[in-house]
Amino acid sequence: MILMEDVYKTYPNGVAALNGINVDIKQGEFVYIVGHSGAGKSTFIKLIYREEKPTKGNIIINEIDLSKLKERKVPYLRREIGVVFQDFKLLPRLTVYENVAYALEVIEETPKGIRTRVMEVLEEVGLKNKARFLPAELSGGEQQRVSIARAIVNRPRIVIADEPTGNLDPETSWGIMKTFEEINDKGTTLIMATHSKEIVNTFKKRVIAIEDGVIVRDEQRGEYGYEV
C-alpha cells in the first residue's frame, strides 16, 4: 500500500528532513508516526500525498510509482488519499454539508450521488443533524469531525492525519480516535502523525519513530517512547 525505499528529502535551504527512509505499510494498517518537532514527521506525511517530492529514493502508493507520476495525474492519486489536518482547513463560508460535498463536486459526482454520500458520512461521524451549520457554529471537535467526513467521503484507501487532535481537549480527542478506529476497521489504511503520548499508549497500534530524519523504531503495538 505504501512503500518507501531509501528515501531522502533535502529542502532548498539545505535542511535534510529525511535521510534514508525504508518502510512498508500494508493495506488496512493503522500506523502512528512519532518523534520530536523537526524530526521529519510532516515531511514523511507530505511525501505520501505528493505535497513534496523526495530528493532521492522510490515511493510507491497504491502500486503507483510517484517518481514516474506526471503532474496532471497527481489529483487522481489524491482521490485515493484523504487528509485530516490539525487546523481543520474548512471553508468558513460553506456549511458542513457544502464543505464535505465539495470533495465530490470536484470529481463531478452526480447531485443525487453527492446528497446520498454526504449524508452517509455525516451520520458516520455523528453530525447528520448539523449539516446546515457553518464551521464557526461548531465546537473544535465537531469541526474536526467535518474534516474527517470530507477526508473519507471519496472512500479513499488511505487516510492521513497530521496532528489531528493537537488543538482538541482530551475528551474530544478520545472521540476522534474512536472515529478513526471505526474507519480503520472498515479496511482503510490510516497513518497518523502525533505528539500525544496518551493516545499512542492507550490506542495500541504500529508505531514508527523518526529522529533526525531516520526511522529509529518500528514496532507493532508500540508505545510513544518520548517524554512530553
UniProtKB/TrEMBL annotation:
Every copy of the ABC transporter domain together lies at 2-228
Q: Please name the GO terms of the biological process aspect recorded for this protein, alphabetically.
A: cell division
Q: Where in the cell is it found?
A: Cell membrane
Recorded topology in the membrane: Peripheral membrane protein
May I have one GO cellular component term? plasma membrane
Looking up Gene3D superfamilies in the UniProt record yields: P-loop containing nucleotide triphosphate hydrolases
Q: Which UniProt keywords apply?
A: ATP-binding, Cell cycle, Cell division, Cell membrane, Membrane, Nucleotide-binding, Transport
The molecular function terms of the Gene Ontology recorded here are:
ATP binding; ATP hydrolysis activity; transmembrane transporter activity
Q: Which family does it belong to?
A: Belongs to the ABC transporter superfamily.
Give the species.
Oceanobacillus indicireducens
Q: Which NCBIfam families match?
A: FtsE
UniProt-recorded name of the protein: Cell division ATP-binding protein FtsE
Q: Which domain of life is it from?
A: Bacteria
What PANTHER family does the record point to? CELL DIVISION ATP-BINDING PROTEIN FTSE, IMPORT ATP-BINDING PROTEIN
Q: Say yes or no: keyword Cell division present.
A: yes
What this chain does, per the entry, is described as: Part of the ABC transporter FtsEX involved in cellular division.
- Tell me how this protein assembles: Homodimer. Forms a membrane-associated complex with FtsX.
Where is this chain primarily localised?
A: membrane
